[in-house]
Amino acid sequence: MGITMDHRQINNLWVNGLLQTFSALGLDVAALCRGIKSIEQGRLAPGQQVDLVEARTLWHRAVATSDFSNLGVEVGLRLSPRSTGLLFPLLLHSPSIRTAVELLVRYQMLISQNGLFRVNDINSSNSLLCTYVPARSSVAVHPQHSLSVITAALKTLGSISSRRIRASLCLPAGLDAEGISALLQCPVQAAGELYILELACEGMDEPIAGRDEHLYQLTLGYAEGLLRAQNAGQGFLDQIKHHMDGEQLVQTDIDTVAAAVGVTRRTLQRHLDDQGTSFRKLKEGLLKERALELLVARNLPIAHIAEALGYADVSTFHRAFKAWFGVTPRQFKSQIGS
């Protein structure tokens, strides 16, 4: 019997690990998750995911209500290795530290959709230069969100290298370089706009102590299968969203989209179910993205947004927005500092 590949399970572990860490740090998780329907009683339901808009909204709320000046680093240091799913054992049994970094770059999106690591340059045989690039979204990333991912990655790489990796960071201007440096115990500068990591390690290409080649091949094959499943699923969802998107989005129906794709309504429903979603959820997610793009990025009046999306009137849009996010449009903009 083959192994069922479900990339959503890893993201689910990551989000639940994040929620547990928020709770341990004294944050009101119920308040943070207001309006996120897939999270109930402080946990993300099995098979469900939090989209990028929801994840970033969660982080903006967390930073606004936390007493920690560097919440992202505090969270990243406390996240359990289990939160990364199979990524931790894959890196632990990698042939070398260099390979582990390359695998982290390749499979990071299985954990979090917030951004990607990229290897920029090889300074020497014992050094790597990486950049963390946040994904584009209608909701801007909070720097602490990115710092949580970077910190968790540094913690993982430190664990598998027996603390031999030496890191130095160049972070966007305005961040607390001194405080972050004290928490991470590494040199930190805050200048420019990028998240740059320099990783140095004697014996970058030497075998990792205690690694198991069989476990490495097993987890590598599994990770590759998950990545293929994620990419295929995302490609399908992007195709459906392309046919849904346009003027009067709120009036788009499943029969019209199914006909545009060339399948029956029932077939489309089944394929969406295979991806852990539904036409209603996908449409709602797209409406949220477009609403925030018009509200936050373009700063349009509420009446214009309601009309562009196809709502009958402003009050109907207001009710929909509050059902999505648990707050009014004006309150939402205040929460994310827009």
TrEMBL record:
Keyword Nucleus assigned: no
One of the record's GO molecular function terms: transcription cis-regulatory region binding
Matching Pfam families: Arabinose_bd, HTH_18
Domain annotation HTH araC/xylS-type: ranges: 234-335
Keyword Nuclease applies: no
Keywords: DNA-binding, Transcription, Transcription regulation
GO cellular component, one term: cytosol
InterPro entries (UniProt xref): AraC-type_N, Homeodomain-like_sf, HTH_AraC, Tscrpt_reg_AraC-type_HTH
PANTHER family: HTH-TYPE TRANSCRIPTIONAL REGULATOR GADX, HTH-TYPE TRANSCRIPTIONAL REGULATOR VQSM
Name of the protein in its database record: AraC-type DNA-binding protein
Source organism per UniProt: Halopseudomonas formosensis
